[in-house]
TrEMBL record:
It comes from the Bacteria. InterPro entries: AhpD-like. This is Carboxymuconolactone decarboxylase family protein. It comes from Acidilutibacter cellobiosedens. SUPFAM superfamilies: AhpD-like.
Amino acid sequence: MAKIIFSQEGLSPFQQLLGHNKYVLEKWSSLEECFFNSNTFTTELKEEVRRTLAFNNGCQYCMARGKPSDGITDSKILIATKIADIVSKNQPISDEYFNKLKKEFTDNEISELLALICFITASQRFGALLDLQPSCPI
């Protein structure tokens, strides 16, 4: 059971926890929509980044949607998930990995990828802080 009660705002358990402040929920959901509707990255890349982060951020609700995939061969997904792993462990991105990132992505893509990683991390840490579980009833 989550550590606070669910609000009446929002469609998912996550949104109902955030929905205690309707304005924050609206803006948060708008930014989430912006990231996940962006065509900059494939759906697969975004999902693998999300999965990587879920297990490092300790969000049970997010982990229930699947573990990171084994055997990824796409070079963009490999470096994106490695960067997500580094960032979610609060480690600096070494010059070596930043150079690998720059070989695969433009500056615009790097900016969006890092913003996506930070946004997902914030969402997952919020869920973890409030002990959001995969089976939370709403």
